[in-house]
């Protein structure tokens, strides 16, 4: 009987036993999730507005004729790959391996910088073609406005993520980091990657 009670208590104490509160987490991780949910709603609003503008427009430029899809694909690959490396950084931090966590964080930053560099090139080419917030050579003003707003807002998030990762990496190199701080940075970075998948699909492919 005592063994049965002990086993029941062990199950309830486990992560999947139902004995833990879903809010039994650190305040920093909980607030990161709140931020991610609210920010996801903002991106969803932008993409829904884009879809509405496109549906009511009599014509819409062919994205494959405007953008270099090879560049966009490379950007996407770099960002998605950095997300996988970020997961390795979180795992290393959880294992207490500060050196490995630092290396993986730096590789994640490299992926983010590559993405931003490609985006700067894409923007400069787009502007060089004569695109502005109010007009563009392809005849639909909303096309350029949507491009600058959606990709610019996401690019700002990537830049913010790179800065955050740099701070966490420096603290890891100094031995002043915590596993939770790396994981919180990872949550933000994964969110940025997931958002880009939707931007890539809705804006560049559809």
Summarize the structure.
The chain is mainly α. The chain has helices at residues 2-13, 27-56, 63-66, 69-94, 98-128, 141-173, 179-205.
Give the class-level CATH name. Answer: Mainly Alpha
Oligomer: single chain
Name the beta content range.
under 5%
Gross morphology = elongated
Q: What portion of residues is helical?
A: over 70%
Q: Helix count, per DSSP?
A: 7
* Computed structural class: mainly alpha
The helix-strand sequence is HHHHHHH
Q: What's the structural domain tally?
A: 1
Radius of gyration: 21 Å
Distance N to C terminus: 62 Å
CATH superfamily: Cytochrome c oxidase, subunit III, four-helix bundle
CATH architecture: Up-down Bundle
Mean pLDDT: 87
Features:
206 residues; elongated
């Amino acid at each position: 009987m005592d063994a049965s009670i002990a086993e029941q208590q062990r199950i309830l104490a486990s992560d999947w036993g139902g004995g833990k509160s879903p809010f039994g987490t650190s305040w920093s991780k909980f607030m990161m999730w709140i931020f991610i949910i609210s920010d996801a709603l903002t991106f969803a609003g932008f993409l829904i507005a884009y879809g509405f503008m496109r549906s009511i427009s009599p014509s819409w430029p062919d994205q494959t004729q405007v953008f270099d899809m090879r560049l966009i694909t490379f950007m996407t690959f770099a960002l998605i790959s950095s997300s996988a490396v970020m997961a390795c950084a979180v795992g290393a931090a959880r294992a207490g391996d500060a050196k490995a966590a630092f290396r993986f964080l730096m590789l994640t930053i490299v992926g983010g910088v590559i993405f931003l560099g490609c985006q700067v090139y894409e923007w400069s080419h787009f502007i060089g073609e004569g695109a502005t917030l109010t007009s563009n050579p392809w005849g639909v003003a909303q096309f350029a406005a949507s491009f600058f707003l959606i990709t610019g807002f996401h690019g700002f998030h990537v830049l913010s993520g790179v800065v955050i990762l740099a701070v966490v990496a420096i603290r890891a190199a100094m031995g002043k980091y915590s596993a939770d701080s790396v994981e919180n940075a990872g949550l933000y970075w994964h969110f940025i990657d997931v958002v880009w998948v939707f931007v890539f699909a809705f804006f560049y492919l559809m």
